[in-house]
Amino acid sequence: MPITKGFRALVDEAMAQVRTYSVEEARAKMQDPNTQIVDIRDVRELGPGTLVGSLHAPRGMLEFWVDPASPYFKPLFADEGKEFILFCGAGWRSALAAKTLQDMGMTNVAHIDGGYAEWVKQGAPTETLEERKARSTSGG
User: Can you tell me the distance from the alpha carbon of 108 to that of 102, in angstroms, rounded to the nearest whole number?
Assistant: First the structure.
């Protein structure tokens, strides 16, 4: 069966409909306690690191974690006072995910243009999972 709408068209449509932050804008928003950065990459992509303070919510579970009717619901996502800024490897999956969350009724969602690759390219702060674990167990 031929593909009638390719991934590029889907990503372009999503980009036109979701709030997109540059790395610089997302870094500034991270200082706000009402901002939650969400890493939607697959667990196998986390080896090199993630954004400091981000929450890992794998793309495959995101809709289930957001929906209160789901047995996998995570109450954090019900906080309407928070803005959830998603990122992935290059900004494509996060655009699609943000669009899906908007389709589910969330208005407090955005994504980072260029994803983790652009974040690293611009020298923005990252941490390895080992550093995160050490910080969380040391109380910092």
Answer: 8
Give the chain's radius of gyration (CA, Å).
15
Instruction: List all residues 6 or more positions away from 110 whose beta carbon is below 8 Å from its beta carbon.
Output: 18, 19, 20, 21, 83, 84, 85, 86, 98
Question: Could you report the per-residue pLDDT of 31-52, keeping only the tens digit for each?
Answer: 999 999 999 999 999 989 999 9
In the β-sheet with 109-112, what is the strand arrangement from edge to edge? 19-21, 109-112, 83-87, 35-39, 55-56
The dotted CATH code for 7-137 is 3.40.250.10
Q: What pTM did the predictor assign?
A: 0.93
Question: How far is it, in rounded angstroms, from Cα 15 to Cα 30?
Answer: 21
Please tell me the distance from the alpha carbon of residue 23 to that of residue 27, in angstroms, as a whole number: 6
Q: Where are the domains of the chain?
A: 7-137
